[in-house]
Amino acid sequence: MLIYLIQGVTFGFAAAVQPGPYQTYLMSQALNYGWRRALPAALAPMISDGPIILLTLLVLSQMPLWLEQVLQTAGGFFLFYLAYGTFKAWREFKAVNIDPAHSTTIGVLKAAMVNVLNPNPYLSWMLVLGPLLVKGWRESSGHGIALMLGFYGTMIFGSAGIILLSAAARNLGPHLNRGLLGVSALGLALFGLFQLWQGTIARWWVGSV
Fold first, then answer.
1. Looking at residue 92, what DSSP letter applies?
2. Which helix (H) or strand (E) holds 159?
3. Interatomic CA distance for residues 13 and 154, integer angstroms
4. Local confidence pLDDT in tens for the 209 residues of the chain
5. What angle (nearest 5°) sits at the alpha carbon of residue 152, between those of residues 189 and 128?
């Protein structure tokens, strides 16, 4: 059981610290609303990954090319939407920029949508975590549970750490805060562009060569 727990912790830490759309979104939320309102978004994988795991184990191992393209394209547009919201916060920045009407529920749901529309979790579960979970579960249900606890426990705590560090940077001064918001908006836009490239242009380019 210990080896599955260690593997879960290792993969969870890698998933938490690896730069990506989800991590960038967490940073933008912490910078814009503070750690108290952003912290619940660290739980987003608990919402989004259930369907991802089921789809991966039951369907996506034989995923057709067009479905992958649709997923990546939709994810790209959604990331552009998040980037625009962060850009507006940068453009209209005030030294005290906490919106009392901001709903933490909306923040969590948006973070979950980032994961749902991002192909990376699907690929991770299809290529690495899915086969490992099936193998461990066949040996013992405790092995599968240890893997899941190690992975999600580490990923959630790692995501919370990203939020707290971003919120700490938020308190270092309004100019730094505004600059980091701009970086977050740019990062989200670049990830969106990359997913659009993977979902449309790159497929067309490869097919035409």
1. T
2. helix 141-170
3. 6
4. 888 898 888 888 877 876 678 888 888 888 888 888 888 888 888 888 888 788 777 765 566 767 767 766 777 787 787 788 778 877 876 644 444 444 566 678 888 888 777 777 877 777 677 777 878 888 888 998 999 999 999 989 988 988 888 888 766 666 666 776 777 778 778 877 877 776 675 555 545 54
5. 80
Assess contact for 83 and 192: CB atoms under 8 A: yes
CA–CA gap between residue 137 and residue 131 (Å, rounded) = 10
CA 138, CA 194: separation in Å to the nearest integer?
38
Per domain, the residue ranges of the chain are 2-208
3-state secondary structure at position 14? helix
pTM to 2 decimals? Answer: 0.68
- Secondary structure of residue 103 in the 3-state scheme: coil
Say if CB 112 and CB 82 are below 8 A apart: no
Please say whether the beta carbons of 117 and 74 come within 8 A.
yes
For 69, the 3-state DSSP assignment is: helix
